[in-house]
Design goal:
This protein has helices at 22-35, 48-60, 86-89, 97-106, 125-133, 164-174, 190-201, 233-245, 261-270, 311-318, 339-344, 374-386, 397-400, 406-412, and strands spanning 2-7, 13-17, 39-42, 63-66, 72-75, 83-84, 108-112, 137-141, 144-148, 156-158, 180-184, 205-207, 213-217, 226-228, 249-255, 273-278, 283-288, 297-299, 324-328, 348-352, 355-359, 368-370, 390-394, 416-421. By secondary structure, it is an alpha/beta fold. Strand 20 (348-352) and strand 21 (355-359) form a beta hairpin. The protein binds ligand EPZ.
Amino acid sequence: MAYYRINGGKPLEGQVTISGSKNAALAMIPAVILAGEPCIIENLPIIEDVHVLTEILRHVGADIELNDNGCMRIDPTGIDRYEVTFEMASKMRASYYMLGAMLGRYGKASLALPGGCPIGERPINFHIKGMRALGANVEIRNGIVYAEAEKLHGAEIYLDMASVGATINIMLAACRAEGTTVIVNAAKEPHVVDVANFLNMMGARIKGAGTDVIRIKGVSRMHGCSYPVIPDQIEAGTFMIAAVATKGNIVINNIIPTHLEATSAKLMECGARITEGDDGSEFFLQVQGGERLRAIDIKTLPYPGFPTDLQQPMMALLTMAKGNSYVTENIFEDRFNHVPELRRMGANIRVNGRTATIEGVEKLYGANVKATDLRAGAALIVAALAAEGTTIVHDIKYVDRGYEHFEQKLRALGADIERVEE
Ligand code: EPZ
């Protein structure tokens, strides 16, 4: 196990470059199965979840090379197995994309039900509803999803919730179905659009990604391509929040500002100063923290609303704002596991169902805390960077799943952070 030792109270200053989007990458890697030919994916973040997914693809027979600067070559032609075991699926929830990709390409797949996690039960019933609508026979026996289809056909599929995973998984399976599929109440997150663009580069015919209705016209074959992943707006938002929490002043490079509208708006409402610029080739944001921040209300919503993945880091910031803030988590039913850990640092938070009331305190103090999930870990790191004294953040394996070179990037911004392998 590893932990971070962080001496807080130092404003973050300088420049940071954002890595490729984790949640786009975890869908694009299995999507290559549909091409049936080698593909190149560039700007992949070198994070634990990418390594796990690479092992899963290799296990079923794909040939993968990944170099240090995030360029991956995947050759799916050698795939000759169609199951994702419990051991693999339990390591990484997004293994569920193997279902849509395998079903779309081979007409069969079996996947151990990916377990819940510390943010909620996280079922995949919408995914299964979509596969059945496309004509697949899907059964669940002993915790394994068995899916097969002679032929997939187009369908109109309404999603009860704008589920990111279900939207992408149905898109994957529908690419090579006969006829047209319409996904209604589709998720609109930037990574949904990125995956649709990637699939279209392979010859798919997808329209409407980024809106509530996505239309996929099935094609009989697809082909290889080369494609760069978009920047990770959640990583970018995490650095924005850390800069404001430490009263710092940073420039964030390699971002797409429209993906960060909600985060920028809420940080400015708190009293941060955010300016957007471009150097002719790429956009950047300058983020400056003010003096004591103002309390605000946050409600997480599907994109373009405030992202649930930044609820936890944002709450860390709000523990030090002047006044009472109210954070409502509308996406996941159990995404407040960072609260007891923040309380150890002096935060004053009360949770009632899906709403947390945060009574701002002057400052937080260093303590021994532990990460319970990826973004809870990010929240504790934000709090530790701002706190007075030394904080030990245990179980940072969760953080390794989603942030590339996190401690190096933070150190380059002046943070006093050290990774210790226990
Ligand atoms: C994706 O999870 C992301 N993960 C999550 O990021 C992110 O928080 C989430 O989308 C929302 O933006 C990846 O992309 C790998 P959902 P996903 O389906 O697809 C319920 C991170 O920190 N639901 O949009 O699982 C579900 O329980 C991670 O990077 C069903 O009920 O999220 C949740 O309450 C955490 N049945 C809500 O919908 C289903 O079949 C939204 O989930 C599917 C989802």
